[in-house]
Amino acid sequence: MTPKQVESFNRLVVAYGGETLFRPSAADRWLHCPGSIQLGSTVKRDNKSSSYALQGTAAHLVFNEALAGVREPEEWADRRVVLEEKDASGKPIEVYVDAEMVDAINFSAAIVNDVITPWTNVHLEYFLSLQPLDASYPLLGQNRGTADVALVNTQTRELDIMDLKYGQGVMVPANAPQLKDYALMGLINFPIEGGWSKVRTTIIQPRSR
Fold first, then answer.
1. CA–CA separation, 198 vs 178, rounded Å?
2. Residue 171 contacts by C-beta under 8 Å, 6 or more apart in sequence?
3. What is the 3-state secondary structure (H, E, C) of 112-126?
4. For a pLDDT cut of 70, what percent of the chain falls above it?
5. CA-CA distance, 161 to 51, in Å (whole number)?
6. Which secondary structure element, helix H or strand E, spans residue 57, and what is its range?
7. Gap between the Cα atoms of 23 and 146, Å rounded
8. What is the mean pLDDT of the chain?
9. For residue 86, what pLDDT band results from cuts at 50, 70 and 90?
10. Which among 49, 102, 169, 200 is least buried, having the fewest CB atoms inside 10 angstroms?
11. 45 pLDDT exceeds 70?
12. pTM, entire model
């Protein structure tokens, strides 16, 4: 990067306040409109999550615990998930786990478990980035994110990137730019002898039914 590019890059990082410039979830936008990154630096950032986003965060926690064998979804029934995010009074936000969430997470966990074999390394909430391509080029580190599930099958050399979408009504295709971005990062972050034979991306959206 030239000194001018470094200066511009640093200004963007400061303007975004630590938020990733090239978020995988926004890949469809910045791939088709690179200028949106610069435009986004001029917008006041609102880090407050909507009620739908908070519900999704809670569902991901229940999902992660189910896959990790920490707690079955049924054990969360009629309880509240305490999130790290706080309300206006500074009190941690709580999300109620209803029967619909229990059923949805059971459905979702079954899809993941069906792919796991004795040769599968399971990575949950796994941090991925393009930075390993070139540790000296900071812009690559701005394309990063956390994959809900990354399954590495060392026998068949197959990589599965799986993403839980708890939203209702709006379908997300499995070949969405976000998942392709995660797949690319997965190829880079999980090197394997002989190379990968197959990379799959899967969207799990239980409430689309």
1. 18
2. 205, 208
3. HHCCCCCCEEEEEEE
4. 98
5. 26
6. helix 51-68
7. 10
8. 92
9. confident
10. 169
11. no
12. 0.89
